[in-house]
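Box S1 | Example of a co-folding query
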Amino acid sequence: MSKETVLVLGSSGQIGTDLVHALRNIYGNDNVIAADLKAQPIAIGQAGPFEFIDVLDAVKISETINKYKVTQVYLLAALLSATAEQKIKSAWRLNMEGLFNLLEIAREQKHLKIFWPSSIAVFGPTTPRQNTPQYTVMEPSTVYGISKLAGERWCEYYHQKFAVDVRSIRYPGLISYKADPGGGTTDYAVAIYHEALKAGSYQCYLKSDTRMPMMYMPDAIRGTLELMHADAAKIKIRSSYNLSAIDFTPAEIAASIQTHLPAFSISYAPDVRQAIADSWPQSINDAEARNHWGWQHEYDLNKMTADMLQHLAILKK
Ligand code: NAD
Ligand code: SER
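Box S1 (continued) | Returned holo structure for nicotinamide-adenine-dinucleotide
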């Protein structure tokens, strides 16, 4: 393998914390540069280079790519669905301009390989909600979803017009224990594990029967790396791939937790996030990802619950 140097923009968040760790295991600590507006979590920050970079600063991104002779960039900085509804203008600016800056740099520097995550939020209330296919009606009703759909179109455009090697996944809600989620509608599925161990109960901001597509972080990280390592000829979709693992409701995740913690209880007080959840798919069809580059998920709900509770119990000691 030729020498690869990787830059992760927005590395201190939920995905970045796990992704930087995985990338450093593959490429070596010194060859993965973490970058964010806020400091890296201590365990990861000490293991390799870190730069304070605002993704709205195209000059700084370009200088950093040149300084480290970067060959791959993962762009994770964004405002997620719930926060973006509170900060419409800054969400649009961050989610669009950050991507645009990077696509422009990649247009000039032909050797760069780019990863940019999209989301199930690209779908909207007029999309078929069960087993949502790759190609379907897409009329998102959130600022986050609108920015992700526009971003997908720009990724495909830069690939077709300028041969930029950009790859993308429409992540479902991601569940992890290393870092807290950053303001999404699916965050309850992380908080519920923390509260189950801490308080023995959880008040959910979604109704008990709100089914949503979800994925455990180890599957998401492996899928991301498999997409980035696949031969370019296998990547036939340059907007963004549907990717599926599990789907469940708050009542079902609570029942899964109760198999380990029988006294755990859940109550429901739906808030503004209910409308966002109701506009998104309940389950995803990811046939293209499975056929094109061999995606397979590993974790189902109960396997994820066992792993989450085990790791969180260790961290809380
Ligand atoms: P997060 O909110 O946990 O992390 C985002 C990071 O970006 C934070 O550390 C933040 O400090 C940083 N950031 C914000 N503004 C910045 C700026 N101007 N310059 C540099 N850094 C900045 O988000 P995440 O969950 O890690 O998500 C990463 C990406 O994956 C986002 O594009 C998100 O839309 C997408 N995604 C996430 C999920 C999920 O469930 N976590 C699902 C679908 C898509
Ligand atoms: N987990 C993300 C959110 O809820 C989905 O993109 O915003």
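The chain has a mean pLDDT of 96. The first strand starts at residue 6 and ends at 9.
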